């Protein structure tokens, strides 16, 4: 399954992902952001599980299972660009803003802003086609706890 997703993501002209694979790609992007600063903390893991459970209406075990799949996918994937392009193709703009908000939740889960996390969020926002203004507003909502 992971090999199939990677093959489709790395194809010269990738096709849009089905909803299940789009979930995996989003989850892998969340994991990638959490791992960016070199500290994949239990708080970040719990935050990812909560985001996945809320976003997709999953129970705790199903969210943890999706995150575990995403950890494998993220570790095997060559770059962030393909994740974001796959999500962009599979998710309407308004929901992509929610993706950016979720990414900020993970990046800020440890209570600190890290330059590497800021950089990957800027890149992800750009490749998802989310405007700088919408990304900044998403970060502000997360900062304010909303």
From TrEMBL:
This is TerB family tellurite resistance protein. Residues 24-139 form the Co-chaperone DjlA N-terminal domain. Signal peptide: none annotated. It comes from the Bacteria. It comes from Roseovarius spongiae.
């Amino acid at each position: 399954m992971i090999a199939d997703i990677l093959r489709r993501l790395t194809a010269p002209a990738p096709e849009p992902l089905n909803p299940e694979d789009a979930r995996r790609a989003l989850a892998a992007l969340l994991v990638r952001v959490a791992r960016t600063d070199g500290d994949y903390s239990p708080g970040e893991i719990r935050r990812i599980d909560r985001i996945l459970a809320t976003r997709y209406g999953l129970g705790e075990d199903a969210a943890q299972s999706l995150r575990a799949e995403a950890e494998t996918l993220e570790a095997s994937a060559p770059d962030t660009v393909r994740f974001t392009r796959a999500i962009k193709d599979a998710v309407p703009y308004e929901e992509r803003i929610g993706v950016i908000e979720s990414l900020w939740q993970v990046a800020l889960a440890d209570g600190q802003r890290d330059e590497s996390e800021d950089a990957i969020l800027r890149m992800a926002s750009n490749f998802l086609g989310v405007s700088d203004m919408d990304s900044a507003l998403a970060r502000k909502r997360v900062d304010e706890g909303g």
